[in-house]
Amino acid sequence: IVLDFPIPNPPPQLVSVRDNCYKFLMFMTRFSGRGMWYLFLATMVFGSLWDTNISWFFGATFSLYLVLLGSAALVKGYLVSSQLDKVRIALLRERDTGGNIDHYVPASGQGLTKAQFKVVLENVTGEKNSFSDDDLDYVINALSFLPSSDGVVTRQELDYWVRPGPMLMV
Questions:
Q1: What is the 3-state secondary structure (H, E, C) of 55-121?
Q2: More confident site: 31 or 8
Q3: How many angstroms separate the first and last alpha carbons of the chain?
Q4: Cβ atoms < 10 Å from Cβ of 43
Q5: Most Cβ neighbours (<10 Å): which of 16, 98, 112, 127?
Q6: Which whole-number Å values give the CA distances from 115 to 52, 119, 162, 164, 169, in the listed order?
Q7: Distance CA 135, CA 137 (A)
Q8: CB 130 within 8 A of CB 83
Q9: Measured CA angle at 168 (ends 139, 24), to 5 deg
């Protein structure tokens, strides 16, 4: 059975399985999760090719590539996550000092589009172009509650993100 097959009216069991796949495997859509997966894969490739004496050269070469790729993904994920966390902490301080973050959300209540979210990030940090367009796509997908992100950060997603707690890993 293919879980991603487009069924017009899927049965509730299939919807539940899809939701659980999204919920528990969501880390694979983020830089940090991909980085960890590539490092795991490197150990499997190394174990399969080197330790079983199939080919030490290919085992070392493929494993090295996967380790470098996984490390790069982890570093990129950490950099984007820590940059985003600075914005979250600034918004938390604003909220804690009696301020309100309502002025960042448009009156329509539909949420923040990618361009509006970028303006919020720039206003809070005071830095222009601190996030690239691709980084913003990754951040908006990480903030989304739904598997199919529409490119809008809703008020509920913004409130969930701007609360005390650990850093959101992108």
A1: CHHHHHHHHHHHHHHHHHHHHHHHHHHHHHHHHHHHHHHHHHCCCCCHHHCCCCCCCECHHHHHHHH
A2: 31
A3: 30
A4: 12
A5: 112
A6: 52, 6, 19, 25, 22
A7: 5
A8: yes
A9: 90
Helix/strand/coil for 35: helix
136-163 residue pLDDT tens: 999 998 888 877 778 888 888 888 888 8
Residue 133's region, left for phi above 0, alpha for psi from -120 to 50, else beta, is alpha
Residue 24 tokens read as 């528990």
Which residue's structure tokens are 């966390």?
85
Q: Which helix (H) or strand (E) holds 15?
A: helix 12-25
